[in-house]
Fold this protein.
Amino acid sequence: MAETVQIDFTALKDAGTAPKGRGAKSSGGTLVVLAGADLAMSEATRIILGEAADLVQRAATTAKFKGMSGSALDILAPAGLAFDRLMVIGTAKKPAKDAPPAEPDYVSLGGAIMGRIGGFARVTVVFDLPESPDAMGEAAADAMLGLRLRAYKFDLYKTKKSDDDDKADVKSVISLAVADPAAAKRAARHRDALAEGVTIARTLVNEPPNVLFPAAFADRAKELQKLGVEVEVLGEKELGKLGLRALLAVGQGSDFESKVVIMRWNGAKAAKGDKARPVAFLGKGVCFDSGGISIKPAGSMEDMKGDMAGAACVVGLMHALASRKAKVNAIGAIGLVENMPDGKAQRPGDIVKSLSGQTIEIINTDAEGRLVLCDVLWYVQDKYKPKFMVDLATLTGAILVALGTEYAGLFSNNDELSGRLTKAGEDTGEKVWRMPLGPNYDKLLESRFADMKHVGGRHAGSITAAQFLQRFVNNTPWAHLDIAGTGMSSPASDINQSWGSGWGVRLLDRLVADHYEG
Ligand code: BES
Ligand code: MN
Ligand code: ZN
């Protein structure tokens, strides 16, 4: 996507200098400052405002602006300032009852700032708070990430700009003025990699299914080669020879060839033996899910172009890891298929033999994701002996019933991995909620004709789907994230206005950064 923002860091002491000096003719420059509860502002902010501090005070009283997060004060042609516009953005959060005040979420704050200044040509943000913990280097880098995530826009296929979109073509040049710009720049490298990764994931999810069919998706994954990622694309012939028949069965009604893409980032070069074992991320990549012979109703079927959000996340994550040269060996593996009704499509009642050797009775061809993943799980586990496997999949509508769009469902055979994912979720805001697994759920998959059927019953649909996947995992620590509620079509937020959210890139990058590097 075309980036509509350019962001750099400058020193606080330079922030008071308007683009063309005091009293210059309209230069379009905007000054943004931050204010906490009751208009609390940092010392540096007050100095930059100078005489205009009085103006802010008066305007705030008139507008009943109290510095609360989500509110802003917009002052045009502020007297005494060499900017054309002064915006005060509130940062104060109402403290949750009985909870200690939470650390400010600077990524969201950056997103909220972008929400206010989108379309402004030149902006200086005085990024300083009274309670600033340090030189605000990390915080400013987080804000930069939030600004970029909020600015993301998918308009590739719009040939006309709509009326209220007259700002759309403006490229915003934003300076974040911070106490220690050098520290911010250092911290920004990691966030740049994340912003790119999330952007890639979002765009893959937003792309239409006639453009992003499996081979086209694989081509996008190949672009990771530029960053030093080894990318291997397996086509139907190779997959057939290897025996990924469950995956192939899903794609057999489609005119597009099914693909499996394996991405390898070898960032832990010095690691030897057991330590060198990779971590593995797997994604469901159903480029379009019509349901197949068990065809879906027409309403909202177009949303099923996003049924590859798991695979999109894996590509975005691998991009982020490689781009920031993460000291980890990581495998990304995605199963890319299209699920279509056809004379050659698989039928309910079919029995397929998976790569693991286990046979599966097909019940409902709309439960295709688990068939794709079961073979990819087995393949990765067997071939790469990973430290752990995390799979992401828009697997069940039932997870939306259970958790809505707030949390992704987490299913795991390992408490440590679960705990780490839960913590990374709290830290990044990409939250996961652990759901149960157990033998009584597993029983629901017993089949009269084959080793198992691939759909349980009416109840606990997300759990029986996970239970099915677990039949293809041996002792490898494994976690399954059901992202049907979070990967696409989730409500807009401070940092995301896009249909495809890019959910999971920041979560899993954090998991790696916190536990599996160095
Ligand atoms: N891709 C869908 C799940 C889905 C639903 C994702 C809504 C995003 C939003 C999946 O392949 C599917 O169709 N699952 C079925 C399973 C059922 C047939 C057992 C479902 O959830 O209804
Ligand atoms: Mn389906
Ligand atoms: Zn699906």
Remarks:
- The longest strand covers residues 279-289.
- Residues 172 and 493 are 20 Å apart (CA to CA).
- The domain at 5-179 is CATH 3.40.220.10 (Leucine Aminopeptidase, subunit E; domain 1).
